[in-house]
């Protein structure tokens, strides 16, 4: 089966989709669509296909649509495609609200149409390896997952486009799905909404009215693991996952794609504590050599198999083609995407509550940053007692 495909949206991220579609042996790129005709033509020329401004004109001849437009338009585009029986690959975040994802889930089930979302950080080679280790039970029962994504883009910096300024967290919020879905994919989905909590901070002032630029989320997974993700802007970059199991633990560094396994007790003596440093260095060296080998192989081997192993977008596209052909599950479920948006909603609500509390303090004449205010309040309570 050759999957007839169009990419809707000709912005920056479309290149990753177009490259994967063009390289996949079972996909044929039919068109690039964008409301900006000139942009559509430029991208179409780059990838040797047709340019259109209305994707709905092609739905009758398509098997798959890639949605690479601003998030505010994702729901309507995906809805139209699914109702026409066309499979959809949606860029993250899938929609603005969790309710919209839920409606897409219902439509996909009703029309028996595969639908997935680009949660590409979960398909980095080292992340896939850790997920396999978890699934195979190598770590035992997962007790906790702690994720740190530091150095995310500040709210007022434009990467994706000016549309991000419509989000409460600006460009910072646009990047939050990556650490959120990474935690969900590694640690598992929350047991319930009651097990979900979030905190936010606005660390400095901006010209625009942003609500937060730091965030943290905690929940208990369906398997009883304590899961936490901390997301920071304006710092040096770190992307770490510490996965603690009953049998062994791993530290996964996404930036250099290294995995450090902890499978022995290092606190018994000075010698064993010193050995931990040696083992960590050895693990980093092995990962560096493996990464260098992968890069070298990819330069001389442009086969789809190599592409799917080394490129996270291509890995998702490859698995999704199999799902369209009826040979597998979708790589990222809409349920995982729905929880990703639900976590984002919890973060937004936390920011609204914090802003509301600050405004109330200001109207009451209390300086939230003044520690003396707390002392005076305690003294008043003591006097009343």
TrEMBL record:
Lineage: superkingdom: Archaea
SUPFAM superfamilies named in the record: Glyceraldehyde-3-phosphate dehydrogenase-like, C-terminal domain, NAD(P)-binding Rossmann-fold domains
Compositional bias segments (type: Acidic residues): 373-385
All copies of domain Gfo/Idh/MocA-like oxidoreductase N-terminal, residue ranges: 4-118
Pfam families: GFO_IDH_MocA, GFO_IDH_MocA_C3
Region (Disordered): 354-385
Domain (GFO/IDH/MocA-like oxidoreductase) ranges: 127-234
A GO molecular function held by the record: nucleotide binding
Protein's recorded name: Oxidoreductase
Annotated source species: Natronorubrum daqingense
């Amino acid at each position: 089966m050759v999957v007839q495909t169009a990419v809707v949206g000709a912005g920056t991220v479309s290149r990753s989709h177009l490259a994967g579609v063009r390289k996949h042996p079972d996909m044929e790129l039919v068109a690039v669509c964008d409301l900006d005709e000139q942009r559509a033509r430029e991208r179409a020329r780059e990838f040797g296909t047709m340019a259109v401004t209305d994707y709905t004109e092609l739905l009758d001849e398509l098997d798959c649509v890639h949605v690479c437009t601003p998030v505010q338009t994702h729901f309507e585009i995906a809805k139209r495609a699914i109702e026409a029986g066309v499979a959809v690959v949606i860029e993250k975040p899938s929609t603005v609200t969790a309710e919209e994802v839920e409606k897409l889930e219902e439509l996909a089930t009703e029309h028996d149409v595969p639908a997935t979302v680009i949660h590409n950080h979960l398909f980095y080679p080292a992340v896939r390896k850790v997920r396999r280790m978890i699934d195979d039970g190598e770590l035992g029962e997962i007790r906790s997952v702690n994720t740190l994504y530091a150095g995310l883009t500040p709210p007022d910096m434009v990467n994706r486009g000016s549309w991000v300024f419509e989000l409460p967290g600006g460009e910072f919020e646009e990047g939050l799905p990556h650490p959120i879905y990474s935690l969900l994919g590694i640690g598992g989905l929350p047991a319930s909404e009651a097990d979900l909590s979030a905190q936010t901070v606005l660390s400095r002032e901006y010209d625009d009215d942003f609500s937060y630029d730091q965030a943290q989320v905690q929940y208990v997974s369906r398997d009883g693991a304590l899961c936490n993700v901390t997301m920071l802007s304006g710092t040096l970059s770190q992307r770490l996952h510490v996965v603690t199991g009953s049998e062994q633990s791993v530290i996964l560094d996404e930036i250099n794609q290294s995995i450090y396994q902890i499978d022995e007790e290092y606190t018994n003596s000075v010698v064993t504590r010193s050995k931990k440093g040696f083992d960590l260095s050895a693990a980093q060296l092995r990962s560096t050599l493996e990464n260098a080998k992968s890069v070298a192989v990819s330069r001389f081997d442009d086969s789809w198999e190599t592409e799917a192993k080394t490129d996270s977008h291509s890995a998702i596209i490859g698995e999704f083609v199999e799902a369209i052909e009826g040979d597998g599950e979708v790589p990222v479920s809409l349920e995982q995407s729905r929880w990703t948006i639900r976590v984002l909603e919890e973060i937004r609500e936390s920011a609204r509550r914090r802003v509301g509390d600050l405004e109330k303090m200001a109207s009451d004449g209390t300086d939230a940053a003044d520690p003396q205010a707390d002392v005076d309040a305690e003294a008043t309570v003591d006097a009343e007692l």
